[in-house]
Amino acid sequence: MDVNIVMLGTAGSSPTKERSMPSIAIKYEGDLILFDCGESAQLQMLRYGVNFSKLKAIFISHAHGDHVIGVAGLVRTLGMNRRTEPLKIFIPKGYESVIKMLLSFDRALLEYSIEVIGVGSSGVVYKGNGYSIKSFKLKHSIPAYGYVFKEDDRRRFIVSKTAKLGIKGEMHSSIQKNGSLVIGKKTVKLEDVTSLVKGKKIAYAADTRPSSDTVKAAGDADLLIHESSYAEEDVELAKERMHSTAFEAATVAKKAKVKRLVLTHISARYSNVKKLEDDAKKAFKESRVASDGDNIIV
Ligand SMILES: [Zn+2]
Ligand SMILES: [Zn+2]
Question: Regarding the domain delimited by 4-153+198-297, which CATH topology (the fold level of the hierarchy) does it fall under?
Answer without folding.
Answer: Metallo-beta-lactamase; Chain A (3.60.15)
